[in-house]
Design a protein that fits this description.
homotetramer; 11 strands; seven-stranded mixed β-sheet; Rossmann fold; alpha/beta; Dihydrodipicolinate Reductase, domain 2
């Protein structure tokens, strides 16, 4: 299954029915399964981290709106904490049940976090987020569109708006007029979210530096990337492959208050399993970065 | 120089000083050279098509603003027609001097053309254009950032705003509050411009279909791509490699008037030499599509 | 199906049962179908070009050996001419039934052709052919191994020897001790065959030049590529995408008689449909290059 | 310089003239520098690992033959041990001076090691090694050929034979009639060497399994990859990016004694700095795998 792990592990897949009680249970199933079996899972894992979309939204009506079906366990929605430590570190530390995060939602939420935390956005206008993604976002199974001869070399805007991860950004950022536009490019791992908004009148570049540095200082996996020289002046997903970092960058056009905020992540790490492990560390009272120390590769 | 032409041509490079009079002269030089020698070139070519940025802007002040230097031949700016047939077919047909077009400007202008021609955009807001580009945009010479080991696998937002091609979009579309955000991806040929705007109150999807079809009907190299099925539902640059087509697509969110308009081109064809040849055809009174019949490849 | 052909053709797929008589019938079906229906097809097409592997081998026993099943119409094998004009131009011109060619076999046969035609190989040793291929070789359907996230970035030697196309090289080159080793790389269109052999004692580089130039002179789609300077000194498949050329190159180590002969093609053109069209042109008495004039793109 | 290390290290480059004595000194300079300054360096580092090609060959005449210049410190050649632990673990453990290894030489040497160690090759014939390489082999500096628009999508056989790394394979394997053919493909990190040879009469697949498993058992970074199912049945460089593993595989055609032996590595790790660190660990008496535990990524 994971050929890179040869000679390094003897771990085998076993039947879910054979699960024995554990301290922390990760659920990594297709959407819909966890919500139907959540009662049973709580008997196996005192602490649960569910990577699916089942428990990300707080409101059952939102779930129905975005996923076009009723939630099977709405009473459980309020018991889960949204699993992005940069947003909910304290709550995660105390929680028993943690949801996973959408990869595109994570890149979007972290691109907006410094602006929202410092209350710099003029919310009278729209927030537009353009997201470029690699092919591993589509999961492990292929289809005719993911066939290499079709998927290679693409610049394919497969969702102009209405992507389900939008719901997580609206919920977590508290911004209603927001859209995610999704474009697939030729890469396996990586997401770049580029958010466009207007800042409030009077906001200058110095304010942004302060806001971004604050977020980086508060979070071990957030870095600000804004260089004058070199090939890597802005957040770049490729050097994050395998790492849990979220690299943030920004540009402000003071003449018209247009801010461009960028966040690069590895969708399979910070955008999925990396954040999940980080949550486990917090829940267990361990060092938040445990097992997540890999720095990524260069060149790659 | 162009290894694909082996056994097909014996054309050789010769010194510019040895040029003999021709019916139509193409200038393909670094920016700055044509404006210093334009008088001389008019003695060689009765009709001139200059692919550089020297004569794209009508206003010498604009040139100075965007290129940070005074124009050397401002009196010639008014004698050139901007060389995008979809915008200036009639004028080009009668012109003696034609400017080239910026590749990113072309993708942007054509993404906006149906909306502007039908007067559908609410101009009280900003127009944001996100552009994804291949490596051939950078010209034939490499640098440390274009080295394959650094340039492969990128999603690199190298210009948040302020790209010089913006000036051509402002001029040609007559929209002031517009920005181009440039992101390099792993591809050689191709540009996709994704424009975000608000449509006027009351505009519905049907109005957009009418506007886009009108532009496609008026222009032999414009197609509308908006499919419900298949792998190629939206404009996709890769299948345009070598072709002169501009493929347009759109999505409208009627709930909040957000329109997403896309244009895919081959930056070296419709975004440069293809449009230049199309202009020559018009100037010479020939069939507009002469020499530009290649349809692109699939798969690729 | 082929999105690049939008606005250029209204051709539609129709049911095979509705076929009406034609001058030339191309069969492009999965292996096995043509051999079961060949009698019927001859009533529709006076001239037939079958692109499958059904009629490539002359000997029914060879077919059974390489394809592990009995041939359904062995009496037809002798009526077909192997459809590579560089090997059988005269016979093709007079034939009614032409087989297609294997793409890897074609690259191998053309890499060896100058050496075999000039009788330069020392056949007491083995001929080893290393072939690197793009993903379009695998056909239009994807599988888990062709999923972009798995297929991107590969250098995957999926067949050390025993590839079925080997049978076509043995048959056409008359060499028994020959092997094809197949390695998939990250490309969509293109094959490079690199053949290793020993030349006969006394053969020098000048003899090779003569042999390769002879083949290029005899064949409109063969070129010799062997440059001292530039980025394209050797045959390079990428610049052949969409073209019907076979580019040949070679190096000889006179100290130990080791010759390395290379052939680059587009597997979908010279290695499949391009050669098929070329055969049709010959059968119909038309210019051999008709409809095959595309020169490929650079850069790409 | 290495943007992935942001927030993880404050290490800075300093002038070589400011070097202070260290336990182990790594030299990573262009070829030629170490040999001119080796006396000086021994005063700084009691143990030296030189990654350049300066001290890889034991014989000054070989150096002159392959590098076309006299060696500046021939008396030092005998003091260095060739730095591939799989070949010289004992000597490395006791050595003060270790040479680096050529990346292509390493993939070749390890592909041949099981066959040579078990004495299975029929040396009356040639050994042909076909090597496919990524762009990071070319070093950190770009040139016109490494420009992304030219280097992307290549299958480029840039050296048919005569590559300098051949000298290291001849020296270490003790085989004279051997050639390395180098082909660049579209990948950043990774090398696959595919070696072709004849085994001695009577050798069967079972003998090869024994030979390969023996090498894997003796070496912590060697694995045998030879699967019947899945997408990763053979050694595949891409999943080794960042790891120090050498994955070996083989196929034997018992009918004609043709063996195909494959070795995949990350050229920057096992083929360069990874082996260098492994050597340091051995020299210092530390665990051989220290600092080299990264397992690579999947998917990638």
């Amino acid at each position: 299954m994971h050929p890179n792990l040869r000679k390094r592990t003897q771990v085998k897949f076993s039947d879910p029915a054979q699960l024995e009680p554990v301290d922390a249970l990760f659920l990594a199933q297709p959407r819909g399964q966890a919500q139907h079996n959540i009662e049973g899972y709580t008997k196996i894992g005192a602490k649960i981290i569910d990577l699916s979309a089942d428990f990300r939204l707080r409101d059952a009506a939102d779930y129905e709106k975005w996923y076009s079906e009723k939630h099977a366990a709405p009473e459980w929605l309020g018991k889960f904490v949204y699993g992005l430590p940069e947003l909910h570190r304290e709550d995660i530390s105390k929680a028993h049940y943690i949801s996973g995060v959408g990869c595109n939602a994570t890149a979007s939420n972290l691109a907006l976090l410094p602006l929202v935390q410092a209350d710099l956005i003029d919310l009278s206008g729209s927030v537009i987020i353009e997201i470029k993604v690699g092919s591993s976002e589509g999961g492990a199974d292929g289809n005719s569109g993911s066939h290499h001869a079709e998927r290679a070399n693409v610049i394919r805007t497969f969702s102009a708006f209405g992507h389900r991860h939008t719901a997580e950004v609206i919920q977590e950022m508290g911004i209603q007029d927001i859209s995610l536009t999704m474009t697939a490019v030729d890469l396996v791992r990586g997401v770049l979210a580029t958010a466009h908004a207007k800042v409030k009148a009077g906001v200058i570049t110095k304010d942004l530096w302060k806001a971004y540095r604050a977020v980086a200082n508060q979070n071990p996996f957030v870095r600000v990337v804004k260089e004058q020289r070199g090939n890597y002046r802005v957040p770049e997903p490729k050097i994050l492959a395998g790492s849990n970092y979220a690299d943030l960058g920004f540009e402000l056009d003071e003449s018209n208050r247009h801010v461009v905020s960028m966040c690069a992540i590895d969708n399979l790490m910070k955008g999925a399993s990396g954040s999940a492990v980080q949550c486990m560390n917090l829940m267990m009272g361990w060092d938040e970065t445990l097992g997540l120390e890999f720095t990524g590769l260069h060149p790659i």
